[in-house]
Write a structure and sequence with these properties.
heterodimer; A: D-Maltodextrin-Binding Protein, domain 2; 5-stranded mixed beta sheet; 5 strands; elongated; B: alpha/beta; Alpha-Beta Plaits; 2 domains; 6-stranded mixed beta sheet; 4-stranded antiparallel beta sheet; about 30% strand; globular
Chain lengths: ~400, ~300
Amino acid sequence: MDKTLLIFRHEFLHTIKRRGFIIMTLIVPLVALLAIGGFQLISGVAEPPVAGEVTIGYVDKSGGFEGYTQQGKVNLVRFDAQNDATEALVEGDIKEYFVIPPDYISTGVVSLYTLEKQLVAPEDVATAIRNFLLSNLLEGKVPAATVDRVEAPLNLVTTRLTETGDIAPEQGGFGTFIIPVVFGILLVFAIIFSSTYLLQGLVEEKENRLIEILLSSVSARQLLTGKVLGIGVAGLVQVGVWVISASLLLSLASSTFGGFISTIQLPANFLVLAVVYFILGYLLFAVLSAGIGAISSSSREGQQLIGIFTLPLLIPIWFMSLLMLFPNNPIWVVLTIFPVTAPVEVIIRLGVSEIPAWQLAASIAVLALSIIGALLLTSRVFRTYLLMYGKRPRFGEIIRSLRSG
Amino acid sequence: MLAAEVNHIFKSYADKAVVNDLSFSVARGEIFGLIGPNGAGKTTAIRMMMDIIKPDAGDVIILGEKLSEASKNKLGYLPEERGLYRKLTVIDSIIYLASLKGMDRHSAEEKANELLNQTGMLPHKRKKIEELSQGMGQIIQFIVTIIHDPELVILDEPFAGLDPVNTELLKGMFVDLRNQGKAVILSTHRMNEVEELCDRILMINNGRAVLYGNLIEIKSSYRSNSVILDFDGELGEVPGVTERRTHKGYVELVLDGNTTPQQVLERLVSTGIVINRFEVATPPLNEIFLKVVGKKHG
C-alpha cells in the first residue's frame, strides 16, 4: 500500500476512534431528537386551553347587544344585572363575565370579571368577545360577508418570485434561516476540532520524537498529505452525519408538529455548499495548523497561535444579528470573499438572502488560492522546524526561512 | 558494496557550521562507532544519512545508491530521544510503523510476535505504550527499528536509560545483526560499549572528523610507551623505566624512548620476581577521547 495511504488510514481511524470525536458527532442529532421528543411531550401535557364549550356571561348596559351569542366554542349568556352575573360566576355556572358600560360606543371600554389570576384575557375569550361586539355593532348595516372580513381583514401570504416571474423554489423567512445558522456554528466546530486534532497529533509526534522515525520512513510531503486528508475525511464524515440527520430529523419534525417547523427548509444548494465550504475551510485551517504545529514546541502553544486564525472564523457568528437587519450591506460581501471568514459567512448568508454567483465564485477562488499559498509557506517551514525541539523559533527567523525557503 | 558512504557533507544552522566536511564509510557486517562530545554534530550527521534533513553540500550514498523513498525501507533508525504513540497498543504501534517501512500487516505481526517473544515483551503486547516503563518502551522502539530487516541500522544512544539486563540483551542483538551481515552504526558517549562492540570508529568534534579508522589500530597508535605489571616480590630499579605509577592491583611502568616492552620483560624475569600479569598498555578509548577533544578545545 502506498505510504501516504497508510498514514491516511492510520490518521482517519485514530481520529474517528477518539472519544471527543464520537461524542461531538452523535450529540448534534441526539440533541435535536431530544428537542423533538421534548416538544411532543410538553405539547401533549399542556392541552389547548379551551377544549370544550365555555360559557361566559355579559351584562349589557349599553343596549343593542343581543344576537350572535354563539362565537365558536364560546357560549355567551346575557344577565340583566351585574349581581346576578357575579352570583353565577361564584356558583361556577359561567367561567367569567364582562360588562358593556353605557358609554361603550364612545370609550370602547369593556370590563371582564373572572376568578382566575391571569396576565391578559385568554386569546380565545378575547376573540369571542371582540367578534360578538363587532357582529352586533354592524348588524344590518353591512352584508354578513363584510362582517366576516372586518373580523379578519388580513391573511398575508407572501410568495417570492424569481427574476423570470416564476415561483421561486425557496421562499425565505425564518424557516430557511434557522438551519444555515445552526450549520454555520457546527461548521465552526467541525473545522476547529479537525484542525486541532491535526495540530495536537503533529505536536505530539514532535514532542515524543516520533517525527524522526516517521521522517526516516516517509517524506515530509507524504506525512503532511496523509495527515491532512485522513483527519479531513474524518471531519467530513462528521459533517455528513449532521447533514443527513438534519434532513431526516426535519422531515420527522415537520410531520409531527407542522406549524413553524414545517416551514423550515434547507435552502437549495445548501448541502453542496456546506460540504464544499467544509472541505475548503478545513483544508485552509489544516495547512495553517500544520505550519503552526511545526513551529510550536507544545500543543498549548500551538493552540494559542492557531487562535489568531480561529477568531476570524467566528466573526460571521458574532455579527449574525446585524446580517439579519442589514442583509445588503457591502461588508457581508467582504466577509464572503475574505478566506478565513468565508466558510461560515457563506453558510449563514444562504439563509438570509441570495448570494450572487460571482461572489460565490470569487469566494471559492480566493479560498482555494489561499490554501495553495498557505501550503507553499507551510512546506517551507514544515521540515526545518519539525525537527527543532524545545524552543520555538523567533518570529524573525521564521520570516527569514519563509523567504529563503 | 558499502552500506553507507558519506562524502564531504556540510550543514549549518544560522551561519554556524554544525557538520563541517564530514566523510566516512560503513561496511556491511561491521559495527561502526560514531562518537564525540555533546553538540559535536553526531545527530545532525545521522539525520542527513536518514534523509530527514538535507545536507547543504556533499552527498550520502546508502547501499550503493542515492537516498530515495525506496531505500528508506532498508534503513532502521533509533533516534536519540524517543517516544511512541502513547495511546496506541504495543502491537498496533509496531505494525503501523513497520507498515511505513513497506511491510505488509501479516508479516509485520508475525515478526513482531517473534521479536516480542525474544525480548520477553510478549505478555505486554496488548498494553498501551503509556502503561510501559521507560526501558520497556525503549525495547519496543528497538523492535520497531529492526523489524523490517534493514540492511543498515543506525542507533543513537541506544543504551541510555536501560538497565544492565536490557543493555546486555540489546548488545547481543547488535552482534547478531552484524553476524547477519548488516551494518550497524552506533552513536554513543559510552566508551566502554564502543570498545566492547565496535570494529571501527569515527570521532567527531565541532562537526569535523578528528579520529577515523579501525579501533584496535587507533588504540595502538595512541599507545603510551608503558607496560602493566602485576607481580609478587620486591621490584628494584629496572633499567629503561623512567616512571612507576602504582594503581590498585598493578603498577604501570613508563618506558624511556629506547626501551621496548620485550626488553623490559626480559629484565623483569631476570630479577626473579613472580609475574602474574604483563601486558602492553593501550589507553582506554575514554582517555583518547579526552585527549583528542581536549586538544581541539585547547
